[in-house]
Design a protein that fits this description.
about 325 residues; alpha/beta; five-stranded mixed β-sheet; 14 strands
């Protein structure tokens, strides 16, 4: 027999003083209600209810059990209501994993708007330039650049794509010259992100023509912000996703190079464990980021050729 239904029936019997009334309240037939009550008493080896021709009343054991059962059912109802509320109203701690660059430039500046919409959600950002195991590290959502996940338990939602851009400071180009062709890159100092695919070569394409250029790093790092800072100081040529250097290029702090050539593009996804019922906090952040990227036309900006090709000294 269903123990929860036994408890619910017994509490209703105690409150209504009628087995028939309790059965009707729970949508049970009278015979079924009788079986549930008999099963409960048999399991407890105790007489909970006495019957006479006019009404039912509780035994002393029944009265004590009623108090406990009523409290238990009330606590269960509160627990269910709390869980239901959390699926409708985002709350709790949301754990996000993303690279330092993406966290600094694309997540942190948007958190004020997110907090205004969902004030009950607290944010924990785990910055990592490698892909953390989401389950082992308790990650709710992660920003990743691969087109698919090898783990079938992880779902991805596309945020957009971005070019990779060659750029350098005006001071570096004034000293070393501005390359106008892929061949002219030979002998330049590069700032290399070691986690990039084929980090020590550039696969440049323009129309139907593709050209591969080997490069050597004056500075190599596993973090894009280290390389960006070095580029701004004039150390060498930077190769980074457009979302990292777009504002620097628009502001003139960095100059795009060979802007009519294209490097393999990077897809930006938001990944999350494949659960049947997503929590409200996870769903809210995913939908928020998708809406933010659409509002800002991020993909259009980051995949454009920007029309900012300049030559130092002109």
């Amino acid at each position: 027999m269903d123990r929860l239904t036994e408890l619910e029936l017994f509490v209703k019997v105690a409150e209504l003083g009628s087995l028939g009334g309790a059965a009707e309240a729970l949508g049970l037939s009278n015979p079924a209600a009788s079986r549930y009550l008999a099963s409960l008493e048999a399991r407890l080896s105790a007489r909970l209810v006495e019957r006479n021709t006019r009404r039912l009343y509780l035994t002393s054991e029944g009265q004590d059990f009623y108090e406990r059962a009523r409290a238990l059912l009330a606590e269960l109802k509160e627990a269910e209501a709390a869980v239901h509320s959390s699926t409708l109203n985002p709350s709790g701690v949301l754990r996000i994993s993303a690279s330092l660059s993406f966290s600094m430039q694309q997540i942190a500046p948007r958190l004020v708007r997110y907090h205004q919409l969902y004030p009950q959600v607290r944010i924990h950002i785990e910055t990592a330039n490698r892909y953390l195991d989401m389950i082992d590290n308790g990650i709710d959502v992660a920003i990743r650049n691969r087109e698919f996940e090898p783990d079938s338990s992880i779902t991805i939602r596309r945020l957009g794509s971005t070019r990779r851009v060659l750029c350098a400071s005006a001071s570096y180009l004034a000293e070393r010259g501005q390359p106008q062709t892929p061949e002219a890159l030979a002998g330049h100092d590069f700032l290399i992100y070691v986690h990039a695919n084929n980090a020590h070569e550039l696969r440049l394409s323009r129309g139907d023509h593709t050209q591969t250029v080997p490069i050597q790093g004056l500075l190599e790092s596993n973090d894009g912000q280290v390389l960006r800072a070095a580029a701004l100081s004039g150390l060498g040529i930077l190769v980074q996703p457009s979302y990292i250097v777009y504002d620097d290029i628009v502001a003139g702090r960095l100059v795009p190079l060979l802007n009519d050539w294209d490097l393999p593009r990077i897809q930006i996804n938001i990944a999350y464990p494949n659960r049947r019922h997503l929590s409200a906090k996870v769903r809210s952040f995913i939908d928020f980021m998708v809406a933010e990227f659409e509002r800002d036309e991020a993909e259009r900006k980051w995949t454009s050729f920007m029309g900012l090709q300049r030559t130092v000294g002109r």
